[in-house]
Specification:
Layout lengths: L2 E7 L3 E7 L3 E5 L4 H10 L3 E6 L5 H4 L2 H8 L2 E2 L2 H7 L1 E4 L2 E7 L8 E5 L2 E5 L15 H15 L6 E4 L4 H11 L6 H7 L7 E2 H7 L8 H9 L7 H9 L3
Parallel strand pairs: 3-4, 4-5, 9-10
Antiparallel strand pairs: 1-2, 2-3, 6-7, 7-8, 8-9, 10-11
């Protein structure tokens, strides 16, 4: 059975090592010193280094991990092309989830998703492109991630939880679940479950009647799912 170790680096970036009994995979390895120490301490061989997408803050540490370990480097799209990486014989599935960037991918390990900057804990990533097909792809990616069981764990690419809940409270001031969500927050181990996101994350609640009413009050388009999601994305 594979395990996941989370590492914090820079102001709010989150890196991950997925590992079995003897080998490991590093994702967005900007915390390279801590990652290498963890590997050495646990006598793990780093087999693969990869990224959730190609932004510089997620590419950081790649060379520093590959060179001393002789690990194989795979870009996010190379990982997506493989569809699956095996560590100690156990599968890590990789899905192409464009929207935040065209090369964004999500890693699926047992009951856990590592979606990089596509889905955060409490919010979602931005879509820098104004092209309608990119925005539509982002919605498709989010809907795919939300289709997983509600007890699925979300390990995001950044820790934006506290700020995200400030924004969520502005958008939905009467949401009764925000305080409980914040009580679960642990800066040393940042995660949530999809069930939590569907209760408090306004950017994935575009089909919730309470949020639709808020959009209507603001005279924002709500006729279609895409319109509702686009409308929510203009808030906050």
């Amino acid at each position: 059975m594979l395990a996941i170790k989370q590492f914090r680096y820079s102001a709010d970036n989150l890196a991950y090592v997925v590992y079995g009994k003897s080998t490991a995979l590093a994702i967005d390895g900007g915390a390279m010193k801590d990652v290498l120490h963890f590997l050495e301490k646990n006598r793990l061989q780093l087999a693969v280094v990869t990224n959730t997408h190609g932004h510089p803050d997620h590419m950081a540490g790649t060379n520093e991990l590959v060179k001393p370990t002789n690990a194989t480097y795979l870009s996010s799209m190379e990982s997506a092309g493989k569809k699956e990486i095996r560590i100690d014989g156990e599968p890590i599935r990789i899905y192409h989830t464009p929207g935040h960037t065209k090369d964004s991918v999500t890693f699926h390990v047992a009951d856990t998703l590592i979606p990089g900057d596509t889905l955060f804990n409490g919010t979602v990533g931005n879509c820098r492109s104004e092209a309608p097909d990119d925005m539509a792809a982002f919605l498709t990616s989010l809907k795919f991630l939300l289709s997983f069981p509600e007890d699925t764990i979300v390990y995001a690419g950044h820790d934006y939880v506290e700020y995200a809940m400030i924004v969520a409270r502005i958008i939905e001031p009467n949401n009764p679940h925000i305080d409980a969500y914040l009580k679960k927050y642990d800066a040393s181990h940042v995660r949530s479950r999809l069930a939590d996101e569907l209760r408090v994350n306004p950017y994935v609640r575009f089909n919730d009647p309470a949020l639709i009413e808020i959009l209507k009050e603001k005279n924002l388009p709500v006729a279609t799912e895409y319109e509702r999601w686009s409308s929510v994305m203009t808030l906050g």
